[in-house]
Structures are given as structure tokens and as C-alpha cells.
Amino acid sequence: MANYIIIGGDGKEYGPVTTNDVRQWLAEGRLSAQSLVKAESDAEFRPLEKFPEFADAFAANAPGIIAPPPFNSGGNSGRDAVLQQVKGPAVGLKVTAILNMVLALWGLVKLLFFRASIEQSYASIPQFNDPQIQHLLHLFYGPIGILENIFGLAVSIVILVGAMKMQSLRSYNFAFTAALLAVVPCLTPCCFLGLPLGIWALVVLNKPEVKAQFK
Asked: For the chain, which terminal residue's Cβ has fewer other Cβ atoms within 10 angstroms, N or C?
């Protein structure tokens, strides 16, 4: 989907904004056929009526004067403001992901190299001498435990990559998925930290001005 830069009625530049944003502003009377617009790939501004992709929108909208969008201050300053908004939750998700990775790796090390010691320590407790309990412990400190830690490691990597994309305003869907994974309780070893940080990230990602700046 193409992105556009718009010159507002105050002479400032706004954007980049999507095709849907332009259509919405036309419907609201904040843009007119004479509003100066350029696609990100264009070198010069031209009237909006010169863009064939919006020709069908003018029939339903009377000409008006553009009003500056309330959530963009224009040019690079708008993007800089959004970068500041996403920095906090993105860094928080990075820290969460790294802690999760460390805990998951340590869990794998324990299960792969110290499993016998763990099972012996439980065997010395009378309450755990029941054969069924011993079987369950064997599973949880064996195949199930290993798979659980591998899964936690994979989720942590996704959260880390998503946080990096969020901080650089790239791949909105990936960043949103990473924040959502962090929110899911006990999906990762460090879930108590991921829950509030993931909610923070989701709140920021749902802001219109933040969405508009993602590439």
C-alpha cells in the first residue's frame, strides 16, 4: 500500500499516511481536490485530484480546506515523537526476552546435564516415592520439560525480534505479535515481567499516530 506526504493548511508537511488515511480525511472534509500531496516515491507535490487512485472519492466529498491532523506534527518531528513513544515498551520487551532466553537455556542445561541429580533429590523425599508420581516427575524433568524450555526459547526470540522491529518502526504486525506473546500468562519463563510490559506495548501500538509511522 502506497504512503503519502500531505501539506496542511498551515503549510506544514504531515505523514507518511496510508491510502485509507487520505480517503478518511477526504470524507471528513480535511482534504480537498486542491490539497497538495505527493507519494513517498514522488519528487514534487501535486493537487490530490491528479492522483487517479482517489478519483472515485471526490464525487462523494465537497471541496474543503485541509486541517492539520491532530496526531502528526509534521515531517521528521512526527516520526521522532513516535520513536520516543515506542522506545520505552520496546526496550522493556527486549529485557524480558533476554531474561526469558537465559532462564530457558538454564532450564535446558539442568535437564540435559543434571537430570539424574534432580531425580535423586526427589527420590529421597518419602512423599515422592509413589510410582505414579515418579513417572510424572520423569516426564516433567525429561521430554516435557525439555520441550517446554525449547518452546520458551523460541517465543523469547520472537519477542526480541519484534521488540527490535517496534523500536525501529518496522513490521507493525510482527511487533504487535511480539507484544501479544509477552502478555500471555506463563507462555515464557519470565511471564510476571512480560505481562505489564506487553500491555504497555499493545497500548502504544494501538495509537493511530504510531500505526501511521510503521513501514
From this structure: N
